[in-house]
Amino acid sequence: MARNITYQQAIGEALAQEMERDETVIVMGEDVAGGAGAPGEDDAWGGVLGVTKGLYGKFGDRVMDTPITESAFIGAAVGAATAGLRPVAELMFIDFMGVCFDQIFNQAAKFRYMFGGKAETPVVIRTMYGAGFRAAAQHSQCLYPIFTHIPGLKVVTPSTPYDAKGLLIQAIRDNDPVIFCEHKALYTIEGDVPEEAYTIPFGEANVTREGDDISIVTLGRMVHVAEEAATALAKDGINCEIVDLRTTSPMDTDTIIESVENTGRLVVLDEANPRCSIATDVSAMVCQEAFGALKAPIRMVTAPHVPVPFADNLEDSYIPDAAQVQQAVLTVMGKNG
Amino acid sequence: MSDSIRAICMPKWGLSMKEGTVAAWLMDVGDEISSGDEVMDVETEKISSAVEVSESGILRRLVAEEGQILSVGALLGVLANADVSDADIDAFVTEFQANYVPPADDEEDEGAATETVEVGGRAIRYLLRGEGGVPVILVHGFGGDLNNWLFNHEALAAKRAVYALDLPGHGVSAKDVGGGSVADLAVIVHDFMAALSIETAHMVGHSLGGAISLKLALDHPDNVASLTLIGSAGLGSEIDGDYLAGFVSAERRKDLKPHVEKLFSDPALVTRQLINDLLAFKRIDGVQASLEAINAAFAPGGNQALVLRDKIGDLTVPVMAIWGAGDQIVPASHAEGLPDNVRVEMMAGQGHMVQMEAASEVNRLIDELIG
Amino acid sequence: MQLSKDELLRAYRMMKTIREFEERLHVEFATGEIPGFVHLYAGEEASATGFCMHLDERDKIASNHRGHGHSIGKGCDVDAMMAEIYGKATGLCSGKGGSMHIADLSKGMMGANGIVGGGPPLVCGAGLAAKKLKTGGVAIAFFGDGASNQGTTMESLNLASVWNLPCIFVVENNGYAEATSSKYSVSCDDAADRASAFNMPGVVVDGHDFFAVYEAAGEAVRRAREDSAPTLIEVKINRYYGHFEGDAQTYRGKDEVKNIRATKDCLDKFRAKVTSAKLLENSDLDAIDADIAEIIDNAVDRAKAAPKPPVAELLTDVYISY
Q: Whole-angstrom Cα distance, residue C313 to residue C322?
């Protein structure tokens, strides 16, 4: 049944359906309702970009506005998760992880292991990432590689409304700590999303386009950039296979290897900065596991090793685009002089 | 003059199909075509299949090129007798192309056209096409939905009202399957008919849907005008239990694909999209439990629980069994040795999903049976 | 103070167990057999005990690197704790956490913590859960004067206040944060002075006096349980050993510890008080002393004899499922 809703609505719907189903699910974050203690309306914002709008009206005090104190409320979400709740805390911008990273990487991520397998920390931290809004250096980063690096965390990066809803429901039901990364530029994209609740397992990449000439492994907003490049390349007879990782931890290495074994060529496309990114992670893994299948060196297409600039022309230059992907593909195909 | 020139057009497979890609011509200019022949492979978003022609003649012109993407209804090729001149064929093509209008984007799609009816507290989704006459009810099989009739629904609806429903636990219908047995599901389908005030219908059932239709016909002979069983359950105890168990338990593409391939005579039809759609269905809340419940009641231990072979002779309305000789799920032997009132159409080289892979022929047989 | 004889015995047993445990570790650590770092709580027993006497299975605590006392107070198994500190498979955390990460969630002990200030936010969470799930439980964060300055602690005090959480924040001010005096690093005279900044009561209590701690703790627990409101309590206290075992403590005064042991020891004070008030006999307390000596002896023997975790455990329990 075709029902088109936006990525933003899909996330809101996942939250509402899970809160309906399980009363231990609570939502907290800065302005997730907005208006707390203020004379105007309740639910004034419903999240800075409106993702959680309407939840306060339905669920009242299970939707909690927080003071701007990430280490306290992210830590509280983690502590509450060990004590019987299933909190979905919002770290408004992934760039803010600096002020609460301890609670995530030293506490939540490590309880299960440090405490000898006895802790359960079913916390979800939803966070916005990505450039394109002229929000400049401290509000535009792609920091999922840093979370991916930490054993004990799961990291999710949906690229479509269907994936966003299914993966968020999965995240809420998962008993390990999950960092759920939402690209802010994807909030308004539309897609077919079932009305019922459903899940998508972690560690299952989605091949969004099949092709025999070259594999493009990518994630998040860059999946759409890859699609644009692939459409253009198809006109020149180059058929690209696009592998959307969906989750970076766990990562579906089998599907990546299977694709590269079929095509023999790989471009990895990642909006994050290049050092220690998903691009380097995938490239190294493929070199180690499928070197023999490669007909040409791998090429990575990433943002440069710079902070995100403010001026619109500079930011547009910063974000990898379809033209760059096409160039990389042509290089790997041996068609770039 | 133009009566003897016939257009071969891009078919509409399912309501959401807007266009298809010409994958390959299977016949060439000058080839003699008989009704039911496959002339072209076409790929769509949802499925890859072959265009079957329902008329005979010589293939005189290949209009569409391999790799071309064309809208539904677009001209693919031209059939005519050998004596028709090339000039006439040119004129035909020119006139067709001049008048051809691709379907508009705002044409009703699947979502708008399907409806829901409350049946004993359960929401059942269904699709109604066509009108008038004694209606046909299409009942899909285990793990399927009303889209299994993609290649049959429109064709059959040319002459009468045709309903296709999602069984409980399937498609978009309620996930509560009650006891989940063939008998339980037959009651629900019968209640579905009552809810829509359908007094009498031609039942067409595939696989599990066949057993359900047969049970319904035996229990309510006054409500059934004819019965078509396609690769049907209910006529013997054997069934591929591994397939059923595998389908139910598979959680990933790699696990599901080998089972789904068993359904078709041509495994290339099992596209990534098809597997993705099946996985998406299985991941909806409640579906897993529904499938397990039905499987446990329908085929415990890999044997069909309800065998109605010795009762099928009691039916007084027309009955037909259509089977793929190479059916890997329900053996074709179940269609042998049936009582005389059952017309049997065995299709060589076909598998379990014969209504999809030999759609033209199946449609023709059903049309013939129900008149 | 109206504690029953049983409660007095329980309190003494708790304090003495902590003391024996820590004193024994001091001796054993010096042999080099214990891996990593330990941070001993000897001298501070009245604080952990004064609070934990009020707690039951609904309640949760989070501690810091100096966590053995709180763990024992909350009922963690002494044998399993010792084995954990020795890094053995029979340890409370299967040998994978060590002294700084001792935890037993089944007993409401949310963990010792290697990060200064790591506990308070977690305790806000436990308080939040208790409130939402209506368990009637309270949550206590034990931390030091060093952590009292940490941003996480300040934020937690604010959050517990604006959200009305049933939490108690206990600053065990032993005068030193590692090697730096609290007089230098804490900007106010008493860490408890900060409580009013966060709109909650701030109480200062003598940590060598079990009964004083017990009383202050009781009021804070009542306030949390009944009013769902937080309290900040500063326990003025002293540690007998260094920040960590191996710390030469050159930052302390000559004979500083010797004098404290001689004049303020909490066990001595408890004994003096209960015997002079005829609430308990010396023999009652001596019997406990002997019993605990044997328990700790056995714990050490068992820990030493226990196997290390199998190497395959390196890779287990990172996730529940992956």
A: 16
Please tell me the total count of domains within chain B: 2
Topology match between the domains A2-194 and A206-332? yes
Instruction: Please tell me the pTM assigned to this model.
Output: 0.90
Two tokens, residue B265: 């005579």
Q: What is the mean pLDDT of residues C212-227?
A: 98
Rounded CA separation A190/A193 (Å) = 9
- As a whole number, mean pLDDT of residues B49-64 equals 88
**Residues of B (25-84) whose Cβ lies below 8 Å from A:** none
Best mutation target, A22, A111, A112, A114, to test chain C (most C CBs within 10 A): A114
CA distances from A106 to B20, C119, C317 (A): 53, 12, 15
Report pLDDT for A152.
98
Between helix B241-249 and helix B253-261 the angle, nearest 10°, is: 150
Same domain, B91 and B119: no
Chains contacting C (3 or more CB pairs within 8 Å): A
Q: What is the pLDDT of residues B229-277, one digit of tens each?
A: 999 999 999 999 999 999 999 999 999 999 999 999 999 889 898 999 9
Q: Which domain holds residue B36?
A: 2-99
CATH number, domain at B24? 2.40.50.100
Residues B201-236 pLDDT 10s? 999 999 999 999 999 999 999 999 999 999 999 999
Both structure tokens of A282? 């995938």
Please count the residue pairs, one from chain A and one from chain C, whose beta carbons lie less than 8 angstroms apart: 157
Is residue A139 flagged as an active site residue? yes
User: Could you tell me the pLDDT band of residue B1, with boundaries at 50, 70 and 90?
Assistant: very low
User: Annotated catalytic residue: which of A139, A183, A224, A305?
Assistant: A139
Cα A291 from chain centroid (whole Å): 28
Find chain B residues with C-beta within 8 A of A3's C-beta.
111
Tell me, yes or no, if C133 comes closer than 8 A to chain A by beta carbon: yes
- List, for residues C118-153, the tens digit of each pLDDT value: 999 999 999 999 999 999 999 999 999 999 999 999
Chains C and B touch (3+ CB pairs under 8 A): no
Mean pLDDT of B331-347: 97
CATH topology of domain A206-332: Rossmann fold (3.40.50)
Measured between CB atoms, does A22 come within 8 Å of chain C?
A: no
Give chain B's mean pLDDT. Answer: 93
Give contacts of C 47-66 with A, CB under 8 A. Answer: 60, 62
Lowest mean pLDDT among A212-221, B2-11, C119-128: B2-11
d(CA A100, CA A93): 12
The CATH number of the structural domain formed by A2-194 is 3.40.50.970
Q: Is residue B261 part of a domain?
A: yes
One domain for residues B248 and B346: yes
- Region of B72 please: left (phi>0), alpha (psi -120 to 50) or beta: beta
CB-CB neighbors (< 8 A) of A198 in chain B = 280, 283-285
What mean pLDDT is predicted for residues C72-98? 97
B229 and B324 co-located in one domain: yes
- Please report residues of B whose CB lies closer than 8 A to that of A199: 283, 285
- How many angstroms separate the CA atoms of C200 and C192, rounded? 10
Q: Is the dihedral of CA A8, A12, A18, A21 positive or negative?
A: negative
Q: Which of the residues A28, A113, A148, A178 would you substitute to probe the C interface, choosing the one with the greatest number of C C-beta atoms within 10 Å? A: A113
Confidence of residue B107 (pLDDT cuts 50, 70, 90): low
Cβ-based burial of C313 (10 A; exposed 0-12, middle 13-18, buried ≥19): middle
Are both B85 and B139 inside the same structural domain?
no
Under the banding of pLDDT at 50, 70 and 90, the label for residue A2 is low
- Is B169 found in the same domain as B28? no
Q: What is the ipTM of this complex?
A: 0.91
- Is B106 an interface residue toward A (CB < 8 Å)? no
B314: domain CATH number?
Answer: 3.40.50.1820
A317 lies within 8 A of chain C by CB: no
